[in-house]
Amino acid sequence: MSITTHASTNLAAAAPLPFPPPTEAREPAALERATSRLRRRLDSLLKGIKSRGAQEAAGHVFASLSRQLEIMRIVEINVREGGSPAVTLAALALAESESRALVRFVETRAAKIKGAQGGLREALDAMSFALRHELKAVFGHDLAALAEGRGTSAMRAEFMRAHGLLSNCFQQLLLNLARVFDPAVSGELLFDDYRVRFNESSTLLRELSALALLARRAAEFPDGEASKEFLSGLQAFRRQTMHYLMYKDWDEFSDIAREIVSSHGSARHGFLLRSFDTYLETLTNQVRMRSVLNDQPLDATGHERLKKPRASRRSPNAKPARGTRRAAASRPAR
Description:
Blueprint: H1 3-10, H2 26-47, H3 52-80, H4 85-108, H5 118-139, H6 143-147, H7 152-181, H8 187-190, H9 194-220, H10 225-240, H11 247-262, H12 269-288, H13 291-294, H14 324-329
Helix pairs in contact: 1-3, 2-3, 3-4, 3-7, 4-5, 5-7, 9-10, 9-12, 11-12
């Protein structure tokens, strides 16, 4: 059984997504390549599942989560290109509907089928919990009402927040389920953008740490060379690295940075620098929680590094580590 066959046979949502194509001709081709690549890799996992019931359940879930990621790519492209908010809202509404359908499937059928033992049962239980958690975080308020009457920047921030939370959730759940059947599967193997996201998050951690160090030195020596180095580093961060933060943080970071720069030479400057150091620590902790970094060990310099997971001798039916359910639900995305 292939995920493509399963999707077209058992998921009504497998029809083409009902949204206008992006304006850039290269985007549909790139989206299709990424989708086809993911499906081929998931197909190979499905072929190795001996239990018919487990294979059918996994195929349904793989197809549904793959479909959700297609919808999230449409959201990202539409928002990035300045497309109609109505298209974004329609895509998010479809994602909510299909996610709730997946929750019902997992809770009423997949968790009860013969063969859903050990790791598979645990993964499905964690999936239900995580989906409910993220759906509440994104759709706990009326997105359409929230977007209405707001400026373009604020509306984009809200849409990208929803996109980030859902994309992260769908990828992590798909990866967790794939590892039930092959513990050596990595995010880099399944997702085309995984390496890019890892590199961006790692760079962001390094630059936030460096900027915090400059801020502390500038607060300690406000009239010396340290102050000039901090201001230079702050401007460089805004030009080169700030866009690796979540979109919702861009305006806040820029406002704080402008206030610090304008206060230079005043008695208030030292207080703002110390407050900024605390703010950077908060941002750093948020970045460290990103799913693309959560399984990666620290290298000797204290930075994350991407390693190819080693094959595990653990049985495919072994239970995942305690706390998996809540961990999967609490990792924010960029």
